[in-house]
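W.,

You were right to be curious about this one. When I first looked at the sequence I had no strong expectations either way, so I just let the prediction run and decided to look at it fresh. Below is the sequence, 500 residues in total, followed by the output.
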Amino acid sequence: MANKEILMVVDVVSNEKEIDRSVLFEAIEAALEMATKKLYRDDIAVRVAIDRVSGDYESFRQWEVVEADPEFENGLENPDAQILLEDAQKKDPTLEVGSFIEEPIESADFGRIGAQAAKQVIVQKVREAERRKVYELYKDKVGELVTGVIKRIERGNVFVDLEGTADAIIPREEMIPREPVRTGDRIRGYLKSVEEVTRGPQLTVSRSAPELLTALFKLEVPEVGDGLIEILGAARDPGSRAKIAVRTRDQRLDPVGACVGMRGSRVQAVSNELAGERVDIILWDENEAQFVINAMSPAEVVAIVVDEDKHSMDVSVKDDSLSQAIGRGGQNVRLASELTGWKLNVMSETQADEQNSSEADGYAQQLMLDLDVDEDVALILVQEGYTSIEEINFADLDDLTDIEEFDEDIAEELQQRAKDAYLIKAIASEEVLEEHEPAKDLLNMEGMDRELAFKLASKEIVTMEDLANLATDELLEITSIDEERATTLIMKAREPWFAE
């Protein structure tokens, strides 16, 4: 390869493949080094330097400066490419271990074999550079829409050419079920991940992710793209039905109407892109119960009961719209649950009345026992919202007196009975605790309180050593404290271990 040919190859490949010239010069130098080494039977080290301006190149034989290795007879593993430090310093006292001694040698005559070796190295370098370029181009585009042309379909996996810049895969599980696609079709997707693997970057695209729905609305609805309308969540049954939650930053805008568009044009465009997937647009509300009511659309909610502890809601609808509220295969309630983040128990008005009646009977029976009152009085209390002796004990006496069926004397008597019953329960609980006495070291441990110490002792965790032997999960199972406090207490109990 003549000097001018080297420069020509570098310029042509650099321009066509958009690869840095230095990468190509290094590839040709590596090829020249391989060809030069073949001129010698010994296992020598060679360095080739190409002048980046003229294309002239020189070859040098190298010896690495090393310490003597006693495992080898002359102290060298490879005498053809190594030299002992003491011998090297005779030539140049400044040399150190790891540096090199060089001397010019004859360069290889680049014939057919040398040119072929150069081509292989250049091709490899070009591939590596192209893979790196693709990775750099797409690594920051994760989470964005991408468009491409389907190259082939294998076992349900769809391989896509992203407009000539890279290849991507839409795995079968990320496709919309039963969506008709063919080779040559243009297709959009949500770029889910970009991973570096041995054969180059692997781009994974999704057609079933909820984020695709959000991205399409940003594209179709200018107000969403401009940030005037926010999409706060999305839930999908890909290819069948979806729900998105929206709110506006500008009170003059109707977020639902803006996303639907004139005669449904905007939502229809999104639906067409997703193989006819029907999209419900839900108005977000900071009141979580109202948000759930909105999310149950098109079913009309009659009543809703919130259970904060279980993070669930009982939703009752009219008897004739129960099937609509639940949806085919539970689809409507499942999507509403995913969108809101609440567990939803849907029932008809009749079922809700029966459940409420059953619960009311249960509360009433317990009040009859605790307060020694008849069923009529107990039911009146339950109907007024008093379901336990604790609520009656701590209630304002005026609120009890205001109940139509009660006068002041009855209200005072009920509250006194509630206080007596509450006290009896508290004493009984304390007696149960005191049956198990915690050790002084556990009782006096920093961060411990009396009630927790007795509760631990009731579970046979009597000393600091017993507590130290627990895992955080085990402590959480037997107490109502949070994870951070549980970890802190266990580490405090283990301090004597570290001192030892």
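Here's what jumped out at me. The chain has a mean pLDDT of 86. And, maybe more interesting for your project: The CA atoms of residues 156 and 420 lie 71 Å apart.

Coffee later to discuss?

I.
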